[in-house]
Amino acid sequence: MNHRSVYLETFGCQMNELxxxxxxxxxxxxxxxxxxRDAGADVVLYNTCSVREQAENKxxxxxxxxxxxxxxxxxxxxxxxxxxxxxxxxDLLRRHPEVDLMCGPGELDRLPLLLDNISRARGxxxxxxxxxxxxxxxxxxxxxxxxxxxxxxxNLELLDLSRAFNPDPGARAAGRSAYVRITRGxxxxxxxxxxxxxxxxxxxxxxxxxxEECRTLADRGVIEITLLGQTVNHYCYTHGxxxxxxxxxxxxxxxxxxxxxxxxxxxxxxARTTSFAELLELIHERVxxxxxxxxxxxxxRDFSDEALDVIARCERICPYLHVPAQSGSDRILKxxxxxxxxxxxxxxxxxxxxxxxxxxxAGDVIVGFPTETEEDFEDTIRLLRRVPFKNNFIFKYxxxxxxVARRRFEDDVPIAVxxxxxxxxxxxxxxxxxxxxxxxxxxxxxxxxxxxxxxxxSRGKRHSRAQALxxxxxxxxxxxALEPQxxxxxxxxxxxxxxxxxxxxxxxxDLIVFLDCPRSHQPERLIGTIQKVHIEDSSALSLSGTLI
Length: 548
Ligand code: SAH
Ligand code: SF4
Ligand code: F3S
Hints:
With 548 residues, this protein is α/β, with parallel strands linked by helices. It contains 17 helices and 24 strands.
């Protein structure tokens, strides 16, 4: 039995968070012990993100610290997993000899083998060329699997299927919220984006497996599931044509690839398909214990009316669409290869608003894409004023190696201009968000209580530091919630612990809600439950209300 301790830190998107959960489960079942701090860990793994340079820099600084400790004589196995490993590949390992192993997101099922190889090679010359292959699992060209459907049915799929979900009472929503992957990879090839290069071709999981996974999670107490995919609403599974292992159908390469279209599975006469709309309805019907079904991230062009109607009709499917526009300028959208015009995006928004009552819309925007002029940027400002986005994640364009944008366009918008546009857009979005939130004041809504609010936690800490009372209960909760920054909150300024505790949670539309709960009501017992809340106040980032 293996008793080595492993510290695993995750950067990047929800897909990476899920991958890390699967890796942890896999390593634990092999006898590894997962620890919360890198200090003293035998193995340090970073599950990395490559989407922007900044994301890579974060990982680099962590890798640098561990490398220094290794050079100073500490025996640590240092592994780089995820998109950065896939993007930078073997070169990275040669340039940074302290890194012992690399494993791309499409090869995570091979991680235990790599760790074993390292252990066996310990004591011998690790940097020897022939051993590099034993320390590296990257998809490389294999990860764009358009030549064969076979590759989609590999052990990676089995990693998802073997998921051992142990609800962590310390996690957000007391472990009652979980992710389920429905597609991997992406076929869209937006010109700025590294994801199709790191995650490979779009692959769709069989609906039966997805429902089964949701059922298992529900049986373990999960009440909120977020379905994951880079273009999640592009999901469409054609039955009877996928790879099977021991008679069981595994994942299949998704539509959208040129080469794939030649065989065009989804339009094969008589083929039975499960569309995204049908998948949502299937999960809703078969696993009613899931009180909230969400999905991210959606692609504006891929929403059928059928899908919008299912969301409107099924009460446990959240009326929340994260559907990035990226820009409001047709010229820039074209250079980005987004595949839609501003008019088409707005037509989609109108359709969604007409069909789904109280639909809540969020997005992403990139500022400073190559050649973006002031006029292009103003088109984006107009878009933000036109659509009631509850929030937008705003990113400064970051040139990524291997992308078409890097090859074709010069990164010519100066960083000062990118920053200024970023700030201007944040200011506009703050106004829009404030209006969206204000509309909820006076209404009653359901809130999934996720945690003791950040302000409350820091107030608790400050108070316990000041008082140093032994045995004082300090409620903590892990997980990285997208909470408003302290100070933007709901006026909890006092250091003294009050008669009530401030909790935070989310509405079906993903709006953050703060609620004060009297200590006598045992507020911690509400975490992970859905409560009716009367909304009394709002800000740009959140709502506040009381339990009814
Ligand atoms: N699949 C999702 C998003 C994946 S990446 C989608 O298509 O919507 C998350 C966000 O990062 C993107 O929506 C985009 O806004 C941003 N992003 C991706 N590549 C970027 C780059 N090179 N520079 C700046 N932002 C980028
Ligand atoms: Fe990247 Fe575009 Fe795919 Fe999203 S849809 S992952 S932005 S290539
Ligand atoms: Fe980053 Fe890879 Fe996700 S690049 S955003 S971790 S798909």
